[in-house]
Structures
1.
Amino acid sequence: MQIKIVVKKIIDSKVVFIFIAIIFCTLNSQIIAIKGGKIYTGNKGRVYNDGTILIKSGKIVAVGKNIRIPSRAIEIDYSDYEIIPGLIDNHSHIGTEPENLNEFPVSFGPQHRILDVLSPDDSFWEKAIKGGVTTVVTGPGSGEVSSGQA
């Protein structure tokens, strides 16, 4: 029973992250205050219990306890959840075609960028986002000899 609760909390944390990402995109000029039960900052192990994230014009301007929330702010209460920073996948092949780049060499030289061969329709983009990944370094298969830029 305890395992199910932990798994649900992990899934809910990821949903909170996705929701925050959507807010950044759609309410860019708003002031948003998100209250979290536990907020992991990614900054020197700093964690805030019952903290607040204040966002102005799409940028985080304050994180902590006892943050003054402006009266015109949109308040979102996730005090039953944990909020994490976006995760970084620093070795990925998301969005590259074909599926196994080690078996199907592609023409890829120093004049190319990874953007030239990325597939925005790859289903793994959505899986990465649902898993909390916000930044990806992607490139050709690890078995390929290639140059260019990631």
2.
Amino acid sequence: RRKSQEEEEEEEEEAGKQKRRKERDAQWEAICTFWKETVNQLAPKQHEEERKIARDKLIKAIKNAEEDGSRSELIFIELAAAVRSEEEGEGRKGDKKRSRKSLSSSDQNELEVLKRARRAIPASSRIASLYLQSFARSLQQEQLSVQEKAAQLKQQMKEVLQSCDKDETAVEVWKDRIKLEARSNSLPEMVEAFVQAVSPPPSPPPLVADLISTFLLAVRDHYGSGRRPQACALALEKPLPSSVRSGLVRAWAEVELEEAAPMNKTRIALERWAEEEEAKKSVDLWIKWEEAERAAGEHKRAAGVQWRATRTLEDATEYHKE
């Protein structure tokens, strides 16, 4: 269906509005950045009065930007920081102590700003991270059990992570969620959190490796190394992206070898790895497998690994070189 002239005009008008909004946001960001840098450059003791004036200008610019309808990530983040700082104040001169009431008020106001920020920019991982930190602080003031607080924080993490981008900042939040699920003593839920964290995988690839490492360490620290095969098997039952699947199996096998786990458990991981495409290219793990079998006195198995490696590797000459 061809667009009508009216629809095209509406689209052009909307595009114009967005362009003007971005231009205004950029102007507000420039103003706020200027005053923030001015505050940071003035030493508190030598330039106390000038610093106070610059800080007041910064807060005024931030609030004006919000009143202007700014949807800038930077403005929201600075507004949250300003609200918290303004509410807390400096306390009694010298010790900078603040009342519980003041802390509660600043936490709540900061949280409200970050809630608005989340609604305005749901894909922002920086805002998601700050919101969850603020939410966690507000939970500390609630008369709830540790289990209830953990449950509420987990629920917020689930909701926030569904919409935000998977970048470096978000991966840190995903790692926290995996650890939180591990502490709740539910292996299936922890596995599910890991699967969600890597599906689709974040970019660049080192972030995937970071999540895999966090997952394996969480299993060891909260369930013991003996549960690692079960945890990995549960994860591998899920429709993982091929790069994640291959990375998980390899990391699992490497950890078993490094920790000198019983060979019957190490073989489970290595057998899974040998089925992956990566096994056709990775000479090093075949050699480590053979060496582990020999160290365990399993010379026939070691010979079998060698035979299998030379028939699996795309370039078996590399194996013999090693």
3.
Amino acid sequence: MEKPIVTLGRGTARSAWNYCGQSLAAGFVDGYLSILDSSDHSSSSFTSSSKFKYAIHLYLVWFIKFPTLSYSKLCKSGLTLWRLKKILTMEKQAASKVCCVTGGSGYLGSWLVKKLLEKGYTVHATLRNLDDKSKVGFLESLPGADTNLVLFQAYIYNPHEFKHAIQGCEFVFHVATPKQTADTQSSQKIIEGAISGVRSIAESCLQSPAVKRLIYTASVLGASPLTKDGFNVEFSVKESSWTHVDASFASTHGLQHMRTYTVSKTLAEKEALRYNGEANANGGKLQVVSLACGLIGGETLLSHAPSSVAAMFSQLTGNLSTFMGLEYLEKLLGSIPMVHIDDVCEAHVFCMEKPSMAGRFICAAANPTIAQIAAHFRENYPQHQIPQQLMGEEKEGIAWDKSKLVKMGFVYKYDMENILNDSVKCGRRLGAVVSIDQ
């Protein structure tokens, strides 16, 4: 065992006793901790989890490594004593499994955090900025958040920041992904950011003795039936189908951001699956599950309609820019694979709770065409006049084989009608869809 270069003093050890119920000496060695029993300075018989070590790490950072660091600066970094106490309190909840959710303030990420807390799990959720009260506040208000949720600051373009959130977790859900903004980052930066983010998070999983499984939130955009020439299609789509990222699809300027997102998700998913079966720190093998999710609809915890939900009801609002997203999906995928927010989060939890699971799985409950979606709206929302150019072309959609996940035992609760209707309800609640009396 490496010799510690820092040893807790008597007063600090007494404080550690107060927090931990055990007097400790701890060493900070190359960013990691060597924890010793202070009574005999030998290797402790107490099997400390990585989360416990990280808690002591926070303590050391505060009182030893940065003795002049102000409380306000420490709060901004997320390394507060309050978080230390909270993590140590969670340590005592031995029955609760610990998992990490990256991108915890996003549409899918926040619903997944909510779902995990409801099921009694301890959650480490990452956000880009802990000073953003609009995103921190609604997460901290979730039932169970006061005892079972710890927030960490981590940015996808600084992927090394995720390692602290991953420490001590058995399961890691990598939901966060870089997206193009109006400020306009280059397409290459977004693609490289997605890949390097996956790589860094997977490496952190391998280095953490506690992590058993990495579950990556992929997209059906990575499973196009289009052949490499971009003009012909395969007979059906299944898990072995992959989008040809160098194909000539979506070359128009208006959809360049969609093409960038498609390429980034496709290459990032392949990078994630590359780590499946890699040896981890505890001598086992890391399991990697990739969920290729369809367009997500339904309700939201956010204060605005997410882009995927807005696309669902774009024919009712007549919003051409969001409707173009549906057109892009149909051209690339042959139909619109879709899934309800509650189902997709249940699928993530399902992939975590299986004793053993790895590989790629398509996660979509239905795959209608644009014309079939329009037909549903015309029948159920006749007060809305759908513009002719948004009605879609009458044609047969491409078949999607979604049976692999179902054969594992997963059951979808929401069909196409439920997904579309709940999306409209969400839009009306948020004022994105105007209610029109018949």
